[in-house]
Amino acid sequence: MDTGLKNKTAEYGAWISIGVYIVLSLLKIGAGWLGNSEALLADGLNNTSDIFASLAVLIGLRISNKPADADHQYGHSRAETIASMVASFVMFGAGIEVLRSAFVKIVQKDIASPDMFAAWVAVFSAVVMYVVYRFNSRLAQRTQSHALKAAALDNRSDAFVSLGTFIGVIGAVNGLPWLDAATAIIVGLLIWKTAWEIFREATHMLTDGFDENELEKFKETVLALDGVEGVRDIKGRVHGNQVFVDVIIEVDHEMNVLESHEITEHVESELLEKHQVMQVHVHIEPFIQSERLSKA
Prior knowledge:
The chain is mainly α. Helix content is 72%, strand content 10%.
């Protein structure tokens, strides 16, 4: 699946998230207000922010699909990672508002016992969001989309948040009204946790961080090829759903240009086939056994 098709496919997941969040946010806010549930209102507010976070993911996917141009010769794939970061900022803001509202209710002792139907709305929402999480998680894995992966993590967080809301409302209905507001605080903290995980991964990729274990796998693949005598250096970076690899290999110093060029093509094809690395830059260095022995 090429990069353009991957991004187009990932967009379906973003659209599904947006549609589900619109419906659930209206349902939760309405049920929370009518049912006197602070936790369900907080959950609904969280879903409202998730609409904007999913829109950011969708816009990022659209921009990342633009071809390379004079100003962006590596393409626009990093727009997808920036979208993930924007989504984390939106989630941080939602978490702040949820925590503020819950603490105000507790300090002012403005705590009312919620109605039971609020609990059923919460558990229904948890099931729906978990189904959406499973769908987007599989789609993110298939398309290698980090932005959609961030959206899926948000979906999973929302499923657990709604489940926690259900527990809080049940407790409040059964004589512990403070438990509803306390659950709203837990909701806010869970939102922050997911936002931090998304933010940390996005900043890691934007600063060209790369998994050392993955690089070692790439190196082993290259070393196993006929004609490759050694790997002097290998680097990797991520642009959206694309992996870029720069590798310096050693070949027999008596090889001609054509023979060494064929080896570089084998390196590129093997990394693509075994690790789905779309962009590989190979630099050739001569391997001289006597020099290696003298250094040893």
